[in-house]
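In the laboratory, one determines a bound structure by crystallizing the protein with its ligand and collecting diffraction data. In a computational setting the workflow is compressed into a single prediction: the sequence and the ligand go in, and a structural description comes out. We illustrate the idea with magnesium ion.
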Amino acid sequence: MNQRPLETTATGPAFVPGPVLLLGAPGVGKGKQAQILMAQFGIPQISTGDLLRSNIAKGTELGMQAKSTMEQGKLVSDELVNQMVAERLKQPDAVRGYILDGFPRTMPQAVWLDSHLGTKALPVVAVSMTVDYDQLLQRITGRRTCTVCKHIYNVFSNPPKVAGVCDFDCAPLEQRADDIETVFAERMKTFAAQTAPVIEHYRVLGRFEEVDGQRPVAEVTSAIEAALRRLRGARA
Ligand code: AP5
Ligand code: MG
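The predicted complex, in structure-token form:
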């Protein structure tokens, strides 16, 4: 991917933020920023949306259970998603930290995560991004994703060099089934009812910062990195 090189020292990446939650509405930039931060810090992006879509593509039982719920802009059950996250967190690449993208997004998921991680692991830090409704709608309807490397484009703000084709591996780009205006409206209602309280939960806990996601991608990345350093008490 076309990203900045890893910030390294002789012993490895200079700063690793540990477990991070990226929070925000549909289209706010969670996936785009998580891909950049993953390359920057050498820790995995764990996107529950991507994991569910991968299950749908493979035709698994979980994918079959999730498909119509996702296409309606509603949330998959907490039980299924928590179990999927529990399995993913056991993978060895998650030991030094991870970027959770799109999870938790209900209060039961947040309560489950807080107790699942307990006090043994470094506590999570949360960064919430904000973008206004009209900009979100444009981002959602303009989004295209590489079918192979999953790089995220936007036909309005960040188009590929050749329309419909990934710059990095020449694979075709696809539009998500839930990226249409009517489903977006439903996803926003779901976000307001079920995920906004999760953001307030982490705001009250205190290991939390809010970032203006309306700015260009690189500026948002810098703001998130600065927030993570402050939240972890690291030098700038
Ligand atoms: P999920 O895949 O998580 O979708 P979402 O939360 O609706 O978020 P998006 O992926 O749409 O947006 P994003 O913030 O990642 O934006 P992106 O970076 O791509 O979930 C999908 C569904 O799965 C849910 O509806 C639910 O059914 C189910 N699900 C998932 N997790 C679940 C859970 N925990 N519990 C229950 N169900 C769950 O950017 C969007 C576009 O904007 C791109 O084109 C990008 O290029 C562009 N862009 C990004 N940043 C900028 C910028 N700064 N300036 C200009 N353009 C930008
Ligand atoms: Mg996403």
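Strands lie at 8-9, 12-13, 19-23, 45-47, 98-101, 125-130, 143-146, 152-154, 173-174, 208-212. Keep in mind that any predicted model is a hypothesis to be tested, not a measurement.
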